[in-house]
């Protein structure tokens, strides 16, 4: 049975999945946004139930799934809060979910992110309890079935060593200093509430903007390499274009808060790393695909910089988040 997150620590430790008894000083709430997640939920729920630090509560925020997502959650005694798919917002929906939970630490997990072992929550909590760290994210490892380029991209972006970053690191790292992912993240609730939650509505990268605001208030963000999840995608060229269009629009929109200059240099460095590793393995076909993949990202990024001069019709063709734009255009009428 799940704890309701109330009472003293001594009584709270008696709750959790499977009757586990683990001494804890802070409580953990896990939030999982879902959409047709029936293929992901069973192993994910099992992984969370068998953690060394058992979460006090798990909340699924479902966007009108048409499969067995909600039925699976109910069978596993996981609380579900339903939202309309048309109203989903990367910031607003997560804010809503956070307000429905009580844990001292708020964890966000994507439905397709699977903890590698039973120490995921334990390691994330350790990272979050470091001095001045108010938010931390985990290491993402590509699934075995992921394409070679995706595996190398994850390896480049998610190193094997943990670190803590502050505003002082921006001059050295540029945009990389803000790198953070709500695919697998955790926040101190008191910080989250101090910031008023995520920006909402927001097109994308609510996590990156929160990192910027943490820096602005003198806090630090963490990266916990010891906490690992399997997570990867196989994007088409069109999907890469649209994703990078949105990221570019986001950076243009929030350029006063994210003082990092161009992201092109970091992108080039990653491409060179990937091509070098592919060459070592003789993956010529993948090297060619990497060129096209990188080109789609570059073109999407370049187009996003000019979004302010585009028609509504053009933007809707280029974005991966048409719901955000439709609401924005509607509100402007």
UniProtKB/TrEMBL annotation:
GO terms for biological process: single-species biofilm formation. Residues 29-195 form the Glycosyltransferase 2-like domain. It comes from Roseburia porci. It comes from the Bacteria. This is Glycosyltransferase family 2 protein. InterPro entries: Glyco_trans_2-like (IPR001173), Glycosyltransf_2 (IPR050834), Nucleotide-diphossugar_trans (IPR029044). Keywords: Transferase. Pfam families: Glycos_transf_2. One of its GO terms (molecular function) is transferase activity. The lineage of its organism: Bacteria, Bacillati, Bacillota, Clostridia, Lachnospirales. PANTHER family: GLYCOSYLTRANSFERASE, O ANTIGEN BIOSYNTHESIS RHAMNOSYLTRANSFERASE RFBN.
